[in-house]
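User: Quick sanity check before I run a bigger batch. Here is a single chain. Can you write out its predicted 3D structure?
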Amino acid sequence: MSRVDRVSEVVQALEDKILSGGLNPGDPLPSEREISTQLGVSRTVVREAIGRLAGLGLVRSIQGSGTRVAAPSGRQISVGYQRLLRWSDCRLEDLAAVRLPLETAIAASAAIHRTEVQLASLEETQQTLGNPAKSLKAHLKADLDFHAILAEATGNAMFHLVLAPIQELLIESRRQTLGRHGAALAHRHHADILAAVVAGDARLASQAMREHIEANFQHLRAAATSVDAVLLGDQPQGGDTIQRRVKEFP
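Assistant: Done. Predicted structure follows.
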């Protein structure tokens, strides 16, 4: 068996153990010596395999604590999205359009499954977003946290894993729109969404989120020239709407 094959074999063995729950997030990996002995490979092969696992986001090295299993993350998806945006004709507006069916579904599900603790957390983000004395950085975090908490409130972990990378890539656009339009509009939209979620009204929550995403899309288009120039080296095309981008969705 070649060296490359041996490394791949060790990667597969450790990945299977992590994904099956044999090793949980935060657990330390066995030492290089232990893995080497158990799998009958050299420590150099083990080292390379652990490097690959780190690249996959499955493990991370902590100074003084060795290598530990990483918590589930959408980071690798985010990196993939970033490459797609840079290497294709996709633009931030295209990614923003994906939010429409995704986040309207999240809002509807959150209205049904949310807990009192999550409602309190949503209200905390509103207090920050509604305070004009807070910094742009604080407003940006509150905006992102609001959507992340809604995804958590669905009880469906896939929503958070899919949404988080999109949110990360849209941070710059949010900075542009909040900086240009202020936080008051986002605060008002979030208030409508939160009221529907508190009432447990899935239909109204979905509708309020749709209106919020539509407004965000229009603001994003207004800021697209500067954002695209920095991130994509591209210019927005006129005559487009989010409705047309996602017309295949109900």
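Confidence is low (pLDDT under 50) at residues 227-250.

User: Great, the batch can go ahead then.
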